[in-house]
Fold these 4 entries.
Entry 1:
Amino acid sequence: MPEPALDSDTLRRFAAGDESAFSAVYRRYARPMFTVALQVVGRPELAADAVQQAFVQAWRAAPSYSAESDIAPWLFTITRRAAIDAWRKERRHAVVDPPEGLADPTTDGPSLERSWEAWQIRKALDELPVDERAVVRLAYVEGLTHSETADRLGIPIGTVKSRTYRAYRRLSELLAHLAPYNNERGGERLDGQ
């Protein structure tokens, strides 16, 4: 289960340059940032270097971070740029071509976008109340119908429908920031518009 998001006080202290808040941000986001960097560069040691550089840049840019907004996209953007820089630097110094199948990270490849979206969706699902999350997982992950979900959970079908509706509304709110992103790629918004 992923760690909870950091509280607004910690984020304000991070933006103000507080070292203990920086440590909290590091503990919470180092692993997801490593995943982003690894997808860009393809090698764990280079990804680790990129994450270190990203944290240095984040620390320097902390005063420009708006503590009211989600810190994850801000950190992932810094990480991706640091990883691209590391990849370019290594490529300039490399004698051989990169291994086959290693995409050019300077373009927006679908795997990074999909991984970021998947992380955002998983995070939103984890924020749902347990009863709503159970209904969503059975319906959308296991593909059960409302009546099959009701049987599995031992609850009335009307309860399944109301929990599904509430979960859908919450997810729509939690994932609203993906709507412009998906619309650029021709995707569909969660609220069906």
Note: The chain is about 70% helix and 0% strand.
Entry 2:
Amino acid sequence: MVLRDSAGLVVDSLNYGLLVDPWASEGYHGISGAGEAGCRVAVPPAGRGGGAQNAQPVASPNRSSGRFPDGADTDSNCNDFQLQTVTNLAAAATVGSNNIKIANAVDFAPGQIIAIDTGANQEMVMVATAGTQGAATVGTATAAGATVIPVASPAGFTPGQTITIDSGANLETAVVVASTGGGRGGQAPGPSVTVAAALARAHLPGAQISGSGLTIMGGLTRAHASDAQVTGHVPTPGSANQYTRRGR
């Protein structure tokens, strides 16, 4: 979309998706990155399954692009727009819980309204505190003094992140040094989490390891399976969007 004055000069422009008209990619193209074709508003791509030649399309999450901050216009589509935040539950969540574990904690913030799950099982909640990402369970019995914890699946933790291990009297915290997804075909060790200091306690298979996640106001009214979609609030047409950028 291009707005021109009576002399035909471009006074404002907006471009969604791939570049159509150089004038419509508003802003300095050099900051858009290699292969990005100028400052355009990102459009979520359609997913493809498994990488196979005849793979069926994977349903992409319903997402929107919106200005951030709402109504801002710096004359650069590279800076003014962001995609709606989308992640997944890193662990199942039970009815009444006021904390959820998420695969990615970027761009969630206190006071934000988020949607958990989809369809008839979706519920809207408000974020009270936004913490860190990741969750897994201990894969095999781990002794006190260990610094490498085998886990049942990749955990999604980042180096330097503080995590909690186990619960009740066996609860302890640790700082992540590395988190690996394991090798393929049994030719390499399975997924594991390496921590900075020796564990103070032994932990049995199935004990939860997690980041602090998102604490919500009140408790969940429904149970949600691991991998259920979590999104930032979808704006109502004509109303302000509720996107956030953490730390910005």
Note: The chain has a mean pLDDT of 79.
Entry 3:
Amino acid sequence: MNVGDEGGFAPDVDDPYQAVDIILEAFEKAGVAGKFAIAMDVAASEFMVEKDGKMAYDLGFKSGSNVISREKLIDMYVDLAKNYNVISIEDPFDQDDFEA
């Protein structure tokens, strides 16, 4: 299991949906499914990149393999919130991405 910079759960996954599915599976196995909501500390400044003169976000973590616009990132957050009972998203965008 991977551990993030501040000791948080950092699974080796391809997308955030897979990470949340793992957490929900753990809730099921622990017998606490439905008793918790999900909160995320995204730390988006860590994967912000510039593309065509605009801020974008590399979900491949600055590998250039999965760069998306802030609009697509917003859509993903909305989808996660709706489908996974995400109640809080901390640092969803780069600290200087004021438009977002």
Note: Residues 40 and 48 are 17 Å apart (CA to CA).
Entry 4:
Amino acid sequence: MISRGPHPNRRESRPRRPITILLLPAVIWGSLIACSDGGSRNADGAPVDPLEPRVEIYDGFPTDAPDEYDQIRVIEVGDPAANNVLVLSPGTSAGAAYFLPLAVDLVKALPAWQVWSVDRRENLLEDHSKADAFKAGRVTHDEAWDYYIGWLVDGTVTSHIEPPASNEVAFARGWGMEVAVEDLHVVIDKALALGGEVVLGGHSLGGNITVADAAWDFGGMAGGDDLSGLVLIDGGSGPASDMAEVQASLNQLATGSPFNDLLGLGLPWAPGVFNLLGSTAALLEPDQPSPIFDSPLIPPGLKPPVQPTNRAQFGYALDVDTSLASLALVHLSLGTLAPAGEPRGWVDDGIVPIDRAATMFSGIDGIDGTAWYHPLRLTIDGRTTNAGLPHPSQELTGVRAIHGDELDMPIFALETSFGAGRVLAGAQRLGQQSGIPENKLTLVEAHQLTHTDPMAVEPDNPLVESLTGFLGDIAG
């Protein structure tokens, strides 16, 4: 029997903060949802649309960071009266908003469920001021571009983003697995308070965090004791890395930048900004010429051979057939560059509609689908999760994922071409080491998809189809 009560030795959660509603202009969000007059109503008596995203802010695990960063934001989708919750953890360099299309699809099919997407604390470092103004029509795309990117090569731009220097955010070197798991369990405790089933899932590195949480030692009890199931979307946890390799990474982190640098430009925040501005422009000004084409800061491999529209530039930069190999974590099966036109447009003939992909990454006010400042410590610690079993490398990282042979819950795993056999094998290992019957393992091969496709394919999404059945069985 799975326990539903809080761990007696776990730190008590601090009080819940007031709800904050963050919305996108209707032209963006309206492409995903159709208004629904559900049974729930807000404090003013107005009906709550279960498909409209709501944002909650919770006090998180206390660290040596300023108090303003000891917080977690959660995007909630679904009827607030629904007491079953799927909690989702994003992957490397990902923000909570990229789960939004998936969340809407799931709660449409499962009205008794909510989907809560966790936006980790590192995203509180992001400056969304001009991006939100662009979404609201208060500034132009060019003004937003100059604020975030143009100033780097144009000294006449005096009002611009002020990215934090490494020494100003040295505390982020400690944002590893312990912080992520403790923050995540604050959210799980809130979900448990609703009285229904709580399932924890994650995509990519979020799958690793999911395994870590389920196996985490909270004063002698496992985090998984609170859960009714695990969902691993092209992610999970394999064998731990060699101790010498982990130590070398920690040594480098001690004096280097706290954050992942996907493009190797020394600007860790730049890929997130490119994605946020590019996706938003693709939605709001799809047919205008993209300023990215003329920027010397954009790697040539991300630019089409001809001047593209905003939509075409966004598609070309992320499509699996044209994007950089280093961006495989965000590749999507989008479509193709148009054969003619000036500026050149986009042919939307992929299995992922380009507006749906753009909505994932543009997100809602204040929260997008990319993490601008992904903490390297979280990635390093993830290499010592070791499928939730004790390992000497955990002495270096402080990871306490040791109950991985005590899991007592059904497990869902979906693997894409990126998973290359590792994801399903890892899920089977979790089941075997805990003695979970095979009929409690739902293993889905989707090798026709890229790593990020499962969150965005429409229609006929194998993730939505299989996960709907898995969650439906759990809730009875």
Note: The chain has a mean pLDDT of 91.
